[in-house]
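pinning this so it doesn't scroll away 📌
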Amino acid sequence: MINIGEYNTLEIIRETEPGMFLSDEDGNEVLLPNRYVEDVFKVGDDVEVFIYLDNDERLVAVTDEPHITKGDFAVLRCNAVNDYGAFLDWGMVKELFCPFKEQAFPMKKGGWYLVHCYLDEKSERLVATSKTNRFLDNEILTVAEFEEVELIVSHPSDFGMNVIVNKQHMGLIYKDSIFQELSIGDRLKGIVKKIRPGNKLDIALGQVGFRNIEPNAKKILDILEDNSGYLPLYDKSSPEAIKETLEMSKKNFKKAIGALYKQKQITIEKDGIRLV
């Protein structure tokens, strides 16, 4: 099957005047125009190409690399606006169309917008939308607490910065957890810090080792958050006080807060520990 909006590995089956014809295992064919044919290409070779509809609405293969593919998100520049919608630069000869109904806010020529690319089933054309949230779903999560995830910065809110998690879910990085400049469309790694009721994802940037945090350390973090970020316990506290509050041994407590301190999740004060 030849998939529109994706990279396909196809076999060169014959040369013609307009270019080379490529085929998948089922015998479906597509033209690779001469402008994309390289000198080393020959019949029988397998080549990786991107598939989309050209200006004449014909299926075509190209060796260009688009800035966005089907199912992905990217920040693209608006090249033009007409009576039907906006046309975005995605690195291809034919611009990517974004209808007015798919614009969260009216697009303007020269502006940059975070969009999602999808295949319109009626026209079989690739289309962009800046209404990205409708392609994200937190009802069924595919991530767990302390798991490392891929992030795309989406848009700011009163609480911090919204991010797209693994191209599937929406998460939030709180203001007090942001220690670097973030711009819409930035791609970076993060950690699922906490899953709140309603499958809301709290995200922390970086800290790859944080995903391997032991259960006792996770328990201490949860209790800290439930107690305004402070506990009157530290490495000199009595075993009885630690057990009464945390239901764990002093040995396990010291090991856990040591790991949290190294990961800069807590500070150890004179008479307690505090969440960073």
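📌 and the second one:
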Amino acid sequence: MIDTLKEHISQVEKFNADKADEIEAFRIKYLGKKGLINEFFAEFRNVPNDQKKEYGQAINQLKDLAQDKVSSLKEILENGQEQVKQYGDLTRPGAPFELGSRHPISIVKNQIVEIFSRIGFNVSEGPEMEDDWHNFTALNLPEYHPARDMQDTFFIQTDPDILLRTHTSSVQVRYMENNQPPIRTISPGRVYRNEAISARSHCFFHQVEGLYIDKGVSFADLKQTLQYFTTEMFGKSRIRLRPSYFPFTEPSAEVDVYWGLETETDYRMTKGTGWLEIMGCGMVDPNVLENCGIDSKTYSGFAFGMGIDRIALLLHQISDIRMLSENDIRFLKQFKSAL
């Protein structure tokens, strides 16, 4: 009798099944009311006294093994069914990944970079935390210069010579220090100014500034470059340049593009004039060239700068600049189909 139990113990240990009906048949065979284990218990009274202990231990071992085998096989089967339910037919084509949304600032910046890359401008970058020399002094803004008041600056408290850059012109200074003409580069990046936050202004925003330096560069070259840009970016070819002042360019000008007065929005944006200011520009001041180690008697150049945020607001009809930095997923999803 004990040999029979040991034989069944071996069979239970070797048993395996991947179907629910086979597992259930195994359970009934050993653990059912009329199963083998109950039969072995019923035979216990006929076992000689000197074998009862070994016989009882063998029955208990068989019962435990059978119960563990049924539980483990059911668990494997259920996990497999859950996996099939979760993943379905693995031979079917996968569901497409949901596309993310490119930020409107990135969309506009990439468009500007692509337009200028067609005429040979490369992209240069620099640190957002800058020193006084690169942000002010090298750009013809020495200490105590009144024009510094035009840009309310965030200075680092522990070091008054370190600040958050107020424009990406500092990148142009670094580029001129490390490269000799001809230079043709644009510098996109985030800048900071201590301004009140409202629907039309923020304490940080984004700029793209351009620089071209070579022999014989004239104001006419600047105008034609800007004419090309406005035509490619806005589809507007009519521009005007108004005299202005910037410490690092001389002469300097503000650039307006004729937007038109076809819609009510056009009237609101242009205040009824049809003209919209988009950037500042000018010929690079000879002092700036000399500060950066470039011979101003041999070379000349022009520079321009525009706000990416302002153009994004304009092109995408966004009414509040704060929406660009709030990361509201509902707002960003509107640009899913954009480049």
